[in-house]
Amino acid sequence: MEFNLADVFETVASEVGDRECIVWGDTTWTYSEVDARVNRLANRLVAGGLGASRERADLEGWESGQDHVALYMYNSNAYLEGMLGAFKARCAPFNVNYRYVEEELLYLLADSKARAIIYHAEFAPRVAAIRDDLPDLELFLQVEDDSGNALLPGAVAYEDALAGSSPDRPPVERSPDDLYILYTGGTTGMPKGVLWRQHDILLAAMLPATLRGQPVDSVEAFTAAAQAGGMRVLPVPPFMHGAAHWLAFGTLLGGGTTVIQRQVRALDADDIWSTVEAQAVQVLLLVGDAFARPLLDQLRVKEYDTSALMVVASGGAILNKTSKQEFMDRLGVLVLDALGSSEAGMQGTNTSGGGNVTGGTFLRDANSVILNEDLTAPLEPGSEEAGWLAQRGHVPLGYLGDPTKSAATYPVVDGVRYSVPGDRARLVDAMTYELLGRESVTINSGGEKIFAEEVESALKHHPAVFDAVVAGRPSERWGSEVVAVVQLRDGVDVSDDELSDEAARHIARYKLPKDYVYVDEVVRGPNGKADYRWAKDRVSD
Fold this sequence. Notes:
GMP Synthetase, Chain A, domain 3; five-stranded parallel beta sheet
């Protein structure tokens, strides 16, 4: 059996209708309430002429036969409703980075050929500035917030749109082939829309925790998981980041409760821990040390009841061992590194608990392999060769509108189609691999490949370092040299040599930075990922 995300959610909602589905601040929506709301949204989209016009069998992997709905919002119930409502109408929603300036926003909406946009009122001025340059964009749904911005001419207030639509199931026949679109962050190049079949993204990244690692061949598996009771989870990162809404959907499809912190415009550590306490959160998701460090700092100044918390997970960026150890010591939780990407879904996990802290190596997903340098064959256990981390099985169709990049990222090797997003890795044994880093931010210095993430992690072991990003700089001697951009903790001073001495305890000396640049703040996206273009400019200056 193959699955459609909206169909699975409907089935789960019919089983646990009175259970809390989404909690945000003082407002709670049950599964029945959310299902009715997303039906209303779907019917509004259908009434506007949006939906599917061509079926998957008639399309190339990089083509879409559905209308696209832009989600330009902070975390909110409306974001998750926007995804589900679009799915119910056979539209394809996609994520919009809310930090984009007008030029970037125009590029994204034009590249996606969006026909509808759901946006928070705070962003109305940006939408107004570019709407005349987007002839495909027809439907504007504006979500009220505390910005005070008026409704744009021709736009419809989100709640009014829902109130004026039917709560009944939309009259469309959905398909497992219907699209899920995830735009990449564009930290090393222009954003690209990754096209997934809904069936594939569900099995690759959105399964409820209790169903992972086992065959899922009927919708009854989801209803059984829901009846058993789901977890209460708080995804801290923005829902525009894949890891955040993957966890949210895994929760929604398993009968759990997705909790949203009150402060969604920036990371407020006190608000997050207060939400964990008030809502008895069991799983907390963050993005690497950029999120972990301020959260751990807050635990040093104030006590919270975290007795319900069982798992601290990180997706999108790896957690430093020092951070893992402190979470375990302070909270007695399991710490989970989940490795995945927009182009491949979930690819491996690293779990620390019971006093055992690990890092750098990941337990392989059943469909994760390491391909050799020239992408002609998988590497076998025992090989010392560094290769390309690849995924087979449930993988995307391609990049929207780009057959050339689609062919490069999704090669066919011995008749098997793989996703190769660009991460380098080395097999440790049959079940485990060592992640080396993303090739696009690898520094070739003196003939040696140095992975930026590895150096960053080593530097963060020093207690004076709050954050660090590493980039390459042209060098007459080395070709390219490693330079670290470092943000120190407030009121702390440290020398270059002290940082290098600490890093040398964790990595070979040839990988150490040749220079250090100190900044007031390391620039990262709201999803916690480093902006390597900014870092490269900074070290060049």
